[in-house]
Amino acid sequence: MFVALEPRRLYRQVADRIRALIEAGELVVGERLPAERDLAERFGVSRPTVREALIVLEVEGYIQIRMGSGVYIAQKPASTPAILPADEVDGPFEILQARCIVESAIAEEAARHATPQGIARLDEMLARMEQAVEQPERAIAADLAFHSTIADMIGNSALRHFISLLIDKRTSPYFQKLASYFEGPHTWQRAVEEHKAIRDAIAAGDPSAAREAMRRHLTLAQKRFSESFGEEPARED
């Protein structure tokens, strides 16, 4: 029933394969899917890839993810909404990895160009995040503004545009659905503390510390996003 996939657009392929099994009646309403780790082994992909595929299928209405219980086949939807554009191949974990690589370098350079006005702007965004840890939409807006402000410090419009393309993907319905499984006041508070470390390193004019603080923040963000659906807690090493 489940076979290994070619290493191309993997999470989309996993979603397509499971969807086809459901539509063919090989997976029936109410049936519980194998555990995430088992699906990963059978498809020959990583667990985060399986997780991304399951999010697509849940938003489409094909499955229900019940925290602490498992993933179940849902009543077949009357219509399937478009979750991602046909040519959209970047999954959340790829986006976060790209941000970690790019934004670490940006933070390093920003530490060389920091101004009192730029630091004041970072402080403003931090204050907004702290006030909005229980209001996800406001917290996300302040979070994205914080990262954008760091890119702005360098004064390179091309770089600012490029990083905006990555950061803006965080507001997609699919990305937000994935976040809904672990995000809450406690995770936003962690993000605030991680942002403070980035801010302090930039304000100190320490490029190496700024790079490391950003790398650590986005690495931990990847871990939080890759947390299993109630199976295993993400660890912060």
From TrEMBL:
InterPro entries the UniProt entry points to: GntR_C, TF_FadR/GntR_C, Tscrpt_reg_HTH_GntR, WH-like_DNA-bd_sf, WH_DNA-bd_sf
A Pfam family this chain is assigned to: FCD
Keywords: DNA-binding, Transcription, Transcription regulation
MF GO annotations: DNA binding; DNA-binding transcription factor activity
Residue span(s) of domain HTH gntR-type: 8-76
Name of the protein described by the UniProt record: HTH gntR-type domain-containing protein
